Give the backbone structure.
Amino acid sequence: MRRIARIIAGVSIVVATSAVVLPLTIDLDKVQRRSAERLSRLLGSPVTFTEPLRLHLLPIPILTTGRVLIGDPEAPAAQVGGITSRLAVAPLLAGLVEPAELTLERPAFRLPGGQAQIDTITLVRQTFSPLVTGEARWGAHVATFAGSVAGDDGTGAANLSLRLPSAGGALDFAGRISPLATARGLTGRLTVVAADLAPLGGPPNMPLNFEANLAAGGGEISLSDVKGRIGTTRIEGGLAAAHGDPVVIDVTAKVADLDLDLWAAPAPTPAIAEPVADKPAADPLPASPGAPAAPSLLGPATESAPMPRLALPTGIFANLAIAIDGLRWKGQSLAQARFEATLEQGAVLVREASVARADGSRLAVEGALTTPDGAPHFAGLVKFAADKRTATARLSATWPDIAFDDIVVHAGDRLIRGRLALRAGQPTAMQGKADIGGIGPISASGLVSPAVNGVDIQSLRLSWRGLDLTGRLAASFAGPRPRIDADLATDFLDIDQLTAPRKSGALSPGTPLVPPTLSRPPAIVPAAARSPAPPRSSPWSTDPIDLSALQAADGQVSLSARTLAIQGLRLDGAKARLSVDNGTALLESLTGQLWNGTFAASGRLAGATQPNLTGQWSLNGANAGAIGLGVGDVKVTDGRVDAQARFSTWGRTTQDMAGRLAGDGRMTVTDGIVSGVDLPAIHRRLADIGSLGNIGALLKSGLAGGKTRFSSLAGTMQAKDGVAVTRDLKLTAEGGSAAVDSSVDLPRWTTDTAVSLRIGEGAAPPLVVRLEGPIDNPRKLIDANAIQRYLVEKGLGRALRKGGEESGEKPSGKRILQELFKGLGGR
């Protein structure tokens, strides 16, 4: 028994001694060199251990080391902060190092925008099995995986299965593996699925399904026959990359039904967690040096627009081609998008970056992106094309300044040239100038901020034809047409100046812009569709009314002006609200002080095939003297005016609209004064026929700057088919009264008006003044026959003969009456 105990003790001592002594005989430097060589051969890239291996036997045998670099040690493509390996005991007793469990601490990978880091990766080799299991942790995520390689040397049939429970994700690979330094080191089919990308920072309820053929080896890697789906977005394409000098990368992709709005604000879940507090972080990968910013177009850059530092790699040749069919962005549905670019020698050549809408409009950019001294700079050309509209501009951008020079826009026959400068920031400064055919030079500046589906421009200043507007403007591009809402103010707004004729902006054949062979023939209008030619003095035109601008955008504009002038009228304290919706303009309100009274108007203009116009206006408490009512030298110089009217018309030309005008109105003038005639004085003279005296005395008393007070001047107006008629306009005054019977034919631009002036309240017939002919220059005729007969019957003849004898002139009743009432403007 004692002998058995001594044998057991001896064996135990030998085993224990072997367990301590034999591992100490292992050449760790040799193990490290072989490990580096094997990993370098397997990965196809140099592997460098920055610290020696350290072996710890108690309490369990483990092997540790520090940082391990993969790739160029000066600029590694990946690195591991540290490695801890639990060794298998049995092989260790035989002097062999075989890891049973391997932990990689803080592995980091270089990406174009920086580096991505994972907390830990743990690998466990199953006993008596080629299966390796493990897990990777980053942040709140844990990924488990299992893989196997058939050959003992790490080559042969290979399988890998990875699961990410937090996202319902899975990655599966089935293929073959051999040393990656060979031409086909790794080949197989790769499949990736995820039930929801939200836990990874993507949009909610966004599943992923992706598969591709994977091949790697000989310093090359490729994904071919790529097919995938992210939500409703379908992706096909391929990727190929080759290590060398330079590194060559080629990416092609076809994408269908991509909604970028779903990706605009993903959940703020970090993809890479911060390093654990009690573990030192791996040293950052080397970064490229920076440089000062390029000179700015608009002055010194503000702190709100920090300049990004960017250095494009010079050791990479990359080609990227992406085609998207069915793109949605900022609420806009785009039919197609294309992006083709090449990175070479530290510069990106953008061959095409374009978007196209279903209506055929297309926006494209081409040019080159460089990073001199770390400051991004883009120079190229912008092109836009749509139905009857094209635009081009030179684009130059050096952060934070963006300039569009040599802007040329062809909108139908209209030519627009200009320049626009932007300064990126919060908000973005904007300044631009343009010369618009038919409109003239215009300039604008403001502070632009992004808004939902559009922009918001504050501190806006707009100058055009002497008009200076200030205020705010918001533009949205979410609907079928842009929407513009503005709140503007100005000191003085002269509508006549803004609407004065300017050069049409049409391109004349034979000029450098349009060769003679491209001249367009004149439009042919059928005779039945032509409007009758208006009179020469008429303000109407037979040219078609062009309301196409109402289709360009929707929106609402509020405008306030200290003074608004139009056709000689001045509206003080003017406030207007105008809206446009689907080709229809609505003047919701226009208010202000006119002739010391309160003016208000509203209207509607629909730009259909047959434009139609409706409106109404009112004037209350105006001063009649400021209006200038009257005939000839007889004027209404005082009184309160209250008037209102409503109207409607339609037609393709202003001549058509004048001929189809319909409406009604009324006017009342109270407690007024008529200057230029003294009806009470004339009435008193004519009442006493015997003491009338000479005609000069009568003229002096009645017309020499006399005045007549009246209690009311009131009447109504009706319009139909372009003819405005008033039958009841009456004046009630001291010493007499007057009545107006008028018909105004707008399309023919003529008037037929009779003013009947009655002296006193007796039975004397009225004196009739007729206005006939063109509205702006009618013939003025006096019909005095009836009153002449009446006065003769009353004994005026004897008085006239007496007055004629005193003056030495042969009296004539008709002549005397005409002189008597010449202040009425007759002849």
About this structure: The mean pLDDT is 76. Residues 2-24 form the longest helix (23 residues). Residues 56 and 133 are 24 Å apart (CA to CA).
